[in-house]
Amino acid sequence: MGDWFNLIATAILTANLTHSGLAVGGLFVIRALAQFVTGPIGGMLADRFDRKWILIWSDILRFFIVLGFLLVKDESQVWLLYTLSALQLGISGIFFPTKDAILPDVVVENEIGTANALTATTWSTMLAFGAFLGGQVAGTWGIAPAIVLDALSYLLSAYFIAKIAYTQTTTKVNEPLTPKDVTQQYFQGVSYLSKHKSIFILAVQKASLMLAVSGFNDVIQVELSSKVFVVGEGGSTSLGWLYAIVGVGTGVSPIIARWITGDRERALRHAITAGYGFTLIGLMLMYPISSLGMVMTGAFFRGFGIAIIWVFSTTLLLKKLPNEVRGRVFGAEFALLTLAGAIGSGLGGWFLDAFNFTLQNLILLMGILMFTFGVYWFTNGVWGTRKLPAQ
Question: Does domain 2-164+205-383 have CATH number 1.20.1250.20?
Answer without folding.
Answer: yes
